[in-house]
Amino acid sequence: MKTPATRRHHGFTLVELMVAMAITTIMVTLLISITAMALDSWNRGRAEVRAARQAQAMTEAMARDFESMVTRPGNNFEWFVASNGGSVGSGVAQSPNSADLIFFTAATDRYDGAIGTANDLGGDISTVGYSLRFQDPMAGTGAGATQYPTFVLYRQLVNPDETFRNLLGQENLQSAFSPYQANLDNMANFVCENVHQFSVTFHIEYDEAGPPSSRGGPPTVIKRSRPFTLAQGHTTEMRLRGNGMQSTPANAEIGTNSRITAVEISLTVLTDHAMNAVRNNQNVSQDFITRNSFQYSKRVDVPRM
Questions:
Q1: How far apart are CA 8 and CA 177, in angstroms?
Q2: Residue-range definition of the domain harbouring residue 207
Q3: Which of 91, 108, 121, 159 has the most CB atoms around it within 10 Å of its CB?
Q4: What are 205's strand-pairing partners?
C-alpha cells in the first residue's frame, strides 16, 4: 500500500535572508545619503537666495534715501555725518567695516507713509540714521541681547516735525541725533540681518589749481573727482556742512570747495550657515566668508548742493 506523498514547503535560507538584508541596507543608506545631500543643497540655495534678497532690498531702500538727500549751502549747519563704526560686537564676532550714517532726506515713508492724512503734521524733510549692531534682533540691548546675536542693520527715521524742532540748523548733527540713536535698535527700525559688512564710498568733486593763465592772471581751476571709502585705516569720518566738507583724517582734497556727487553703497550679507559659524565663535577665515556670503553694491547720484 502506497502512502500519499507529502508536500514539501520551500522557504528562504538564512544565507538568502542575510543577502537580502545587506542589499536593502545598502539601498537605504544610498537613499539617505542622496536625500541628505539634496536637503543640504536646498538649504544652502535657500540661504543664498535669502541673503541676496536682503542685500538687494537694503541697498535699494538706502539708495532711495540718498537720491532725495537734502542739503543747503551758505551756512555753518551740518547736513550729513558718516563715521566708520569699526567693530560692532565683542569677541570674534567683529565687522571689518561698518558705517554709521546720519543725514536729511525727503523720505516718502515719513509719518508711516500716511502723507496727506490727519497724521501728517507737515514738512517734507526727515532725518535718517543707519547703524550696524551685533545683537539679538528680538531682544535688542535687553537682558537677552547676546542669546542669539547676529549682525543687524537698523534704520531710524525721524519725522519732519521733530526734524524741524530738534535737528535742522544744528552745527553738530551727530550730537543732536544721539537721543534718537538710543532707540535705534527698536524692532520697528529693523531692516536687514546677517550684514557682515556695510561700507560707503563717497565720490567727491573738488577744485585743483591748474596751470597759470597765459595772460598772467590767477591759475585756472580744474574740477577733479575721486572716491573716498569709509573704512578703518583710511577715511574714518566725513562731515558735510553748508560751507564745505571735512574728513578725519584731514585731507587736502576735502574742504570748502568740495561736494559729494555720488555715493556707492556696499553690503556683504552672510548666509545663515556662515552666521552660525560666527555666532559659535568658530575660527572663520576670509575665504569662508567669501564663499558663504552675498555681495551687493550700488552707486547713487546725489542731488547737487
A1: 95
A2: 39-301
A3: 159
A4: 225, 259
